[in-house]
Amino acid sequence: MKNLLALRTAGQLRAAEYKVLSVKDEVRKNLIAKLRKKERIFSGIVGYDESVIPEICNAILSRHDIILLGLRGQAKSRILRSLPNLLDEYVPILKGSEINDNPFAPVSKYGTDMVSEFGDNAEIEWIDRDRRYGEKLATPDVTIADLIGDIDPIKAAAQRLHYAHEGIIHFGIIPRVNRGIFAINELPDLQPRIQVGLFNIMQEKDIQIRGFPVRIPLDVMIVYSANPEDYTNRGNLITPLKDRIGSQIQTHYPRTVEAGMQITSQEAWVKRDSIPVHVAPILRMIIEQLAVEARRSEFVDQKSGVSARLTIAMLENVVSNAERRNYLTGDYELVARVCDLYSALSAVTGKIELVYEGEQEGVLNVAKGLLGKGIKQVFLNYFPDPYTAMKKGENHYRKVVSFFKNGRKIDLSDTLSQQEYVRLLNSVDGLRETALQFLPSARELNPLQLTVGMEFVLEGLHQNSMLSRDEVGAVRTYSDMLDRMFSNIRRTEDDEEEEDDN
């Protein structure tokens, strides 16, 4: 390739026996090379190795235009932006061409005139793959002129050219990525009459400006993304255009918690200056499990989906809450706690669309409920089910639950210093032993990190109705469940007596 980059004329290129491929053949060639070498096709795409990526490979091998169909946050845009990596690193064009003219077969007026005048002495230049990728977010205000081009009356007047002359065209974004890949995000948002304008490019491979007999054959691979929700809520995808798209590929959310954790770890910003950051694996699992619970909750509109951005933003908020605490307490090591999950719910409330029943519950209550379900599920992944253990006569949690008898309680907040946090949780009988017994690799943790696991045990027992928990502001008070129930009964009776007296 280095030797080729030194070539500066069409004649030199021809003498080097350089072969120009169509963009779809070029992408196909490079994909085949990757497959043969067993290289990763798309870097940074997780969870699609057995589903979406094989379908994309099939579409490319078939030389199809592609549409990725899926809900929000399913990596559609990332996949589209990864496709240019399958283009050649550099390709030659006629120097100065607005639409990347092939030096051997130019399609623009500029290119044909240049080859006609200079022949093999026509100058070429090499462009990289980034210049061969164009992208447009479909919005209702997008016009045909934006995508394809329009007549420039000023150019026509200045050069005294007829309106049917190619020299007066101001090219849109699609012709400018000729011999490359063009992506349209959120296709249904494009007005139907604009979608119609794409027919010729996809089928006949040419463009026509304002009805004048100016036809320019283009070599473009067109890829789209669309959200099924858009079909009814904001726009629609017209059937004739859909029919011209070779492959429709359905994306999906991570199918395992582990895949979700990998995506979140890859995307979330958790490194904070020079502060060591520790987020326990159980906390990361809870964040992913919350998203899983949201994707099957009766309160959440499943047609809208639950984006992977929810887990990314929540992990960042968890780390930020721990960082804020360190600044307040003067501690150095940044260790996220279970209480930080509740302080991070602002990342959830704005990313879930609720159905009517969910609106009645309130978005914050729904978010807390989803977090509670996530904590309970992760707890049961590692710890014995409290009720099943009781039936079998296994007293794994007896010491911990008994500690809270006779009115005992502990108050935890997200602003406790590390020293006070460790002291409070270590004061609970049996809590440390329970965490060490069931948490994986617990004995390898330092005292502070182990204490996070101990807080997780308390929260897990609360979610399984073994302990009570009250919230007053940022303070969470754990106490005995039966004491709380009897206290509520006594309070109700006192209220009724007071009403009778009145």
What does this structure look like?
By secondary structure, the chain is of the alpha/beta class. Helices cover 47% and strands 14% of the residues. It has 26 helices and 16 strands. Strands 4-7-10-1-11 form a 5-stranded parallel sheet. β8 and β9 form a beta hairpin.
| Spans of at least 5 consecutive residues with low confidence | none
Beta-strand residue fraction: 5-15%
Helix-strand category = alpha/beta
How many helices in DSSP terms?
Answer: 26
Q: Estimate nothing, just give the exact number of structural domains.
A: 3
Percent range of helical residues: 40-55%
Calculate the mean pLDDT score and round it: 89
**General shape:** elongated
Could you name the CATH homologous superfamily of the largest domain? P-loop containing nucleotide triphosphate hydrolases
Note the gap between the termini. 95 Å
In total, how many beta strands?
Answer: 16
Question: Which CATH architecture of the largest domain?
Answer: 3-Layer(aba) Sandwich
Radius of gyration: 31 Å
Give me the side-by-side strand order of the main sheet: 4-7-10-1-11
CATH fold descriptor of the largest domain: Rossmann fold
